[in-house]
Amino acid sequence: MIVILKDNPDKKQLANLEKWLRSMNLDIHYSQGSTSTIMGLIGDTATVDVDLLNALDIVADVKRVSEPYKNANRKFHPEDTVIEIAPGISIGGGSFQVIAGPCSVESEDQIKLVASEVRNAGAGLLRGGAFKPRTSPYAFQGMRADGLKLLSAAKAETGLPIVTEIMDLQHLNLFEDVDVIQVGARNMQNFELLKELGKIDKPILLKRGLANTIQELLMSAEYIMAGGNEKVILCERGIRTFETATRNTLDLASVALLKTKTHLPVVVDPSHATGVAQLVKPMALAATAAGADGLMIEVHNDPANALCDGAQSLTPAAFADLMTSVNAIRPFAFTGK
After folding, report:
1. Comparing C-alpha atoms, which of 194, 220, 258, 183 is closest to residue 69?
2. DSSP 8-state class, residue 333
3. Which of 168, 105, 170 minimizes the C-alpha distance to 141?
């Protein structure tokens, strides 16, 4: 349920209203818009008397919200959320960011070279896998803690904030220097992990699962936000369908739809969605036009010899070309409003 307050509500009346609502074991989430203040009521609102609320002098309107996700719901928070990742680097609300780098950190020379190249081409953040979830137990699993150290070294050299995936809560203490913690598609519904990430003050990049609906994605975001961490970035990375020509099927409609359902930033990963380097640029452009707040692109200095996902990785030159086209399309992107 949301309660829309009139301009400049009487402070005493507002305090009494808050006390009454909290006495019914309801949490209150405030959202200050450009023209109104919204109280989002979280909990069992079945017993709340809507007519009584509407009769209060300080209340302009009351609406019931049927969706089970409340914190992530645009009805509770009409304005786009803007998440500051580092000084001068934000995402959401018109701030567009490109996250680029190799699928896996392989060596110090590799990660520093790629970091320098993507920064020069216009990327705002560096991605790189230290812990790698792989379908085969015999595939390269990442450099783990050593990989995180190399990412930090690349960050120190280039100034790019880093984005990398967490797979186990036991590793959380290793992520102190990580600017954005990624929750991969396989862990989208690892609810115990999401609960713990809700207790920290760090942006979380939440990837949609291979076979999960949009509502399930938003409910996973709700797990994080219910814990107190509202810095959630959603990521569309393709879903599994009957099609086998591409690695996954990129659900571009979800990008535009999410912009109407949630205030959270939405980024798109066309690399994992397609699995084919030649398809990354056209899908990145389409995602930008659909209203994405950012892109996540895999870039490798030597894709043919990459230890992980070389087939979907762009060369630094191809990435620079992609950035030129993306910047040309951005002024015409869908805003969701």
Report:
1. 220
2. -
3. 105
Average pLDDT of the chain to the nearest whole number = 94
> Encoding tokens for residue 329?
């399309």
Which pLDDT score, from 0 to 100, does residue 29 have? Answer: 86
Q: pLDDT, tens digit, for every residue of 53-89? A: 999 999 999 988 888 898 999 998 889 999 999 999 9
> What 8-state DSSP symbol labels residue 249?
B
75/148 Cα distance (integer angstroms): 38
What token pair was written down for 1?
């349920």
Which residues, listed in sequence order, are joined to residue 163 by a DSSP beta bridge?
127, 180
**DSSP labels for 144-169?**
THHHHHHHHHHHHHH---EEEEE--G
CB 6 within 8 Å of CB 58: yes
Q: Which residues pair with 104 in a beta bridge?
A: 129
User: What pLDDT does residue 337 have?
Assistant: 61
CA distance linking residue 29 with residue 45, whole number of Å: 14
Identify the DSSP state of 303: G
Residue pLDDT, tens place only, 169-196: 999 999 999 999 999 999 999 999 999 9
Q: Round to whole Å and give the CA distance between 97 and 253.
A: 20
Helix (H) or strand (E) holding 261: helix 252-261
Question: What is the 3-class SS of 83-130, one letter each residue?
Answer: EEEECCEEEECCECEEEEECCECCCHHHHHHHHHHHHHHCCCEEECEC
Is the pLDDT at 336 greater than 70, yes or no? no
Q: Whole-prediction pTM value?
A: 0.90
- Residues 107 and 230: their CA atoms lie apart, in Å, by 34
* Residue pair 128/99 in contact by the 8 Å Cβ criterion: no
Helices 214-226 and 252-261 pack at an angle, to 10 degrees, of 50
Query: Could you give the CA distance from residue 16 to residue 22 in angstroms, rounded to a whole number?
Result: 10
